[in-house]
């Protein structure tokens, strides 16, 4: 009994790889011995393998059973050691799955993927951003980076990395170099706006230093800090609360206009602004404008230039990036998106 107890303790402490090799070796050798002892009973080696596995799983259908003394001794051996070994393997598998889920929830797993969106600093605004991203494209994967110790939004395609987002190691765990874009939200846990922007500036500069090709958008608390973010070559920045104030004014001065801005801000309803692929036959803005109108879209800008409808006769620049307002079905038709 003491021997069996010591053997069980050693098996429990075995590494998963060694245990898997031992389990396979046990099954194969037991199957081979069973076939060698009673070839008439099992007829083929595969049948003996089937007998060993059903015996270890305690199902014992009875369609194969040894009739000789050595065969029965081997069966007893399989009962004593095989059933315990199989139970141990199943337990190890369950432990491995549970450990994986614990590490995933704690943000300890390295993300492996491409063209994902990284969200830095968790908040309610970050949650709204993720919901907006997924409503735009349900296939996009999102990686959240924050110093909290538990996954804040555990849903499919939402991954979590726990740690200091200004650390290069943490950013590499999120595979920042292969990311499509990164959004840095202001840290809501810091009360002083200057300190918030200082932290965001540090994060943005770290991202730009190791992944300059990744499109970076940063939320800024104070307008006077915009110039500092331009120095680190942040692609876009959003003034915190600025949009809310401006929308409130638009609503007060132009009754009914708020619904228009709301539709443009969210892809969850109504029309939206989409990038339009330039066709070879479009030589001027006028060509693009009328071609899009016929398909149900309205040309609004070339990059940030929203005055192009006042210069329709001008040729479209080679580096142009046209945007139009339309619904998602029209967008798919225009850009041949399936």
Automatic annotation (TrEMBL):
One of its GO terms (biological process) is potassium ion transport. Gene3D superfamilies: 1.10.287.70, NAD(P)-binding Rossmann-like Domain. It comes from the Bacteria. It is a multi-pass membrane protein. The keyword Membrane applies. Keywords: Ion channel, Ion transport, Membrane, Transmembrane, Transmembrane helix, Transport. It is found in: Cell membrane. Residues 114-239 form the RCK N-terminal domain. InterPro entries: K_chnl_dom (IPR013099), NAD(P)-bd_dom_sf (IPR036291), RCK_N (IPR003148), Trk_Ktr_HKT_K-transport (IPR050721). The chain crosses the membrane at residues 44-61, 73-94. One of its GO terms (cellular component) is plasma membrane. It holds the Pfam family Ion_trans_2. This is Voltage-gated potassium channel. It comes from Desulfosporosinus hippei DSM 8344.
